Amino acid sequence: MKNSRWLAVIAALVIVAPSLAEARAGGGTNSGSRGSNTGQAPAPTQTAPAAKPIERSATPQQPAQKPATATPASATPQAGGFMARNPFLSGLMGGMLGAGLFGMMFGGGFSGGLGGAGSMLGLLLQVMLIGGVAYLAVRLFRGWSAARAQPSGPAYALAAAPRQMNEPAARPASGGSGPALVSGSAALAISAEDFNTFEAMLGEIQTAYSNGDLAKLRGIATPEMLGYFSEELSNNASRGVENKVEAVKLEQGDLSEAWSEAGLDYATVAMRFSMIDTMHRIADGSMVAGNAQVRTEATEVWTFLRSGGGKWILSAIQQQA
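-> structure tokens emitted (321 positions)
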């Protein structure tokens, strides 16, 4: 009987083990949307030098766009070949060749009927003329080809402006003064009040997730993120366990990037935080994983958005790479 009890405990641990290490809200996942930057890596920071790419998102992934290239005026297609674009040279060469062939057909030879030394001199003269015209034609053709090969301006007609990045700035260790998140330069100004909001939302979201409070999560996360949280809670419930995340504390954080697009403001921040993370059996509340006396740490990159100057809500969570 005693052995059966131990086997049951081991089985329970095996069931929850895969989800214990990353049991918090969004732990172990890379989900959500970052607007047009969803498919791009967040700018590195001291807190999180690299983040894993988003794997699940409601935002369609845009294919890589090739920069538009300018078409030089000299590269405009022209009808016909070299002779068609140089009628004078083609007429001159055609006339000379035609005269020589006409003389040969009527017995006068290629020199046009001259005899003796005159015939030889005439032949040499015609050969020299033809050679000179051919040499001139080759020189003109090479000059035209070189001019065509040279670009007539910058390689890119409209190069998209690079997305502005922030200089990473780290917050002092726990206990330091000042806001928890320190702003760097950004396309969108992020205030100390915004950073305090991000820190408060970190605890609110983890608490609401631990309580299975979807109504609370609905007011502080996008519908997309709410769907992911609901899926995680349902998976836990199907295994007969629930995750408890308590005493969340931000240890260090900094701004990765902030920007505006399509009437929405986005702010991506890297956060290293500690917490009490445990897993309990729903049936009797007994702890099956974790330690209520030991704090664990995690580093994640969270993206928040707001509309029209409204309140911030969670839009994406990414794990540190």
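The first strand starts at residue 31 and ends at 32.
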